[in-house]
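User: Before I run my own analysis I want an independent prediction to cross-check against. Here's the chain; please return only the structure tokens and, at the end, one sentence I can use as a sanity check.
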Amino acid sequence: MRPIDRVRAVIKGEPVDHLPAQPMVMMFAARYAGIPYIDYTRDAKIMAECQLRMVRDFGIDCVLMCSDPAREVIDIAGEDSVKWFPDQGPVINEERAALLDKARLKEFAVPDPHREGRMHDRIRAVEICRRELGGETSIVGWVEGPLALAQELRGLNRLMMDVLDDPSFVRDLMDFTSEVAIVYAAAQIEAGADTIGMSDAAASMIGPRHYRDLVLPWQRRILQSVRETNPDVILRQHMCGNVDALVPQMATLPVDISELDFPTNLAAARAGLGPDRVILGNVSTITDMLEGTPERVEAAARKCHEICGPYHIVGAGCEVSPLTPPENLRAMVRYAVEHQPGPMPAPH
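Assistant: Structure tokens:
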């Protein structure tokens, strides 16, 4: 069964040969290939080659076109707010945030992903993977969620204060960041991505009321726009941290896959998201993947499977650490290969 068909079958609740495995591997992929991460983030060919090696060497069911939080930021506002590290990739320097002056938002324009720049570099990586994989394996394009890009432009601490002090500005900023995501998703789909992942890590840091008023409508706007334009695309949402309090509202989003970090209560999330929302991940990137043994990883994957039921994709809660023993990643994929979505494996 083709990996892309396996993922679609699980989403539809159709028969499948075994569970898909889609752990988030970025820095791990570069380290495994012996590539400095700064090169991975700056060169589409290198990123594509590292991701393709994950598919070939480990049997992962996707290539992931995600690398760092600064692709959109740099194309929007330049590199002044970004600091580069040789084996970590770029990070946002909040003291030099692009929107230190909120009035600057009026100067920003949605970048064209087809022009040369960091957003276009990801487009090139998608195109390379499309040529190499020929539609056999899922290509996961990636966009920064509206709150994620907002805090990368404004600075996390300032944006959190804006939520309380200037919600009108936050709404204007979210209008802009959601439009960036819509345009960027469309360009990646055109290049060959069959899946669009959207990360909104900062959302776990706000409560249900502010999530409802200042985040959820713009997440929905992005997802609905992508879905209406591309009905066959798979939509995947990633939110780092503990999102227990947000799950009832997340259940209303038009996504196919909810990727849940390990601090989230998986049993409560399954109940809140409903029985047929596909849940990806929740295996601990620390105690299981980084510090554990292959046996511990398989046990953790089994537990997640038992809780999630047949609508499940095997993976870690968030990005797999580059220091994770390769045998632990192999154990995660092995669990997926050896198990079908249902009936459930017998508990230990």
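Sanity check: The two ends are 29 Å apart (CA to CA).
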